[in-house]
Specification:
Helix 1 (about 1-30) packs across helix 6 (about 200-210) and helix 2 packs across helix 4 (about 105-115). The protein has helices at about 1-30, 60-75, 85-95, 105-115, 160-170, 200-210, 255-260, 275, and strands at about 40-45, 125-130, 140, 155, 175-180, 190, 195, 215-225, 230-235, 250-255, 260-265. It contains 8 helices and 11 strands.
Length: about 280
């Protein structure tokens, strides 16, 4: 009797999970993409270089992390636009195909240290990687188990809301921020220049519980704007060229960040004291 009851409970849970996934899929397929905001109020827009084009390569992690390093130097009055060439040469020297080499953003910093790239701009950069791994304790170092993390970088595991707050704090301070996360939903549209959530909060929570965000793409965050309804967005620089309404940049809603972030890399100085105690320099 007990085993039958347990079987039924498991079956109901499976059916409910499938129903939620199907409902979320139907909702996404039918929900139209929102129109681009008719008016934007700029709160912060940090200095940055022009968006690059990664072409057919898998080097978004390098482009985005370089952009974060650039932003951190530009705020000090430096003028620089870091090319991708040294990264390509360094990967080739290590026997990796630069066109197909996927990685997570901190790999750019370790690669720069190993090969002395960019006059030590990156090797001496004091950045720290943060993540949000479900099922693991917050405030502890973890090694995210993604294929792209083949260097086994440690990241400080934090609640998604804490990641959002720290990213916003860094941008407001004019610091460089590299974002890494899921871009597989219809809400991410380079053509529209938008990264927004289409699901209602309940389905977003269910989706996150059933399928955590995947490690798909990297962007740099360089500004904050609000639309005419007061909805906040990060200004994110992509590496897919400049052919979209915002010249290669995108508006990433805070809601999208909250539900789709895998990791962010920020300057260590951005962290509050309680996190500084366990954060170490790369």
């Amino acid at each position: 009797m007990t085993s039958r009851r347990g079987y039924r409970i498991v079956l109901v849970a499976i059916v409910a999970g499938v129903a939620i996934v199907v409902a979320a899929g139907v909702w996404c397929l039918r929900a139209p993409l929102p129109d681009r905001p008719s008016r934007l109020d700029v709160e912060v827009l940090n200095l940055s270089s022009v968006p690059k084009r990664q072409g057919g390569t898998q080097l978004c992690w390098a482009y985005a992390m370089l952009a974060a390093v650039e932003a951190d130097r530009l705020r000090l009055g430096d003028t620089l636009d870091l090319p991708i060439g040294p990264v390509v040469a360094a990967l080739a020297a290590e026997g990796r195909d630069p066109a197909t080499c996927r990685a997570m953003a901190p790999t750019l910093l370790s690669l720069a240290r190993r090969h002395g790239l960019y006059d030590s701009l990156c090797g001496g950069a004091d950045f720290v990687a943060l993540c949000s791994q479900p099922g693991q304790p917050y405030g502890r170092w973890v090694v995210p188990d993604y294929p792209d993390n083949w260097e086994r970088h440690r990241m400080l595991n934090l609640h998604p809301d804490t990641l959002l707050a720290l990213a916003e704090r860094a941008v407001r301070q004019g610091r460089g921020v590299c974002w890494e996360g899921d871009v597989g939903s219809r809400g991410f549209s380079f053509e529209q220049g938008l990264a927004v959530t289409l699901l209602p909060p309940f389905l977003l929570r269910c989706k996150a519980a059933l399928r955590p965000p995947a490690d798909g793409h990297c962007l740099s965050l360089e500004g904050l704007v609000r639309d005419d309804e007061g909805v906040p967005y990060f200004v994110a620089k992509n590496s897919w060229g400049a052919d979209n309404p915002y010249g290669g940049r995108m508006l990433m809603s805070f809601s999208y960040f909250r539900w789709n972030t895998v990791a962010v890399v920020v300057p260590r100085a951005v962290l509050p004291q309680q996190l500084l105690r366990c954060a170490t320099q790369y």
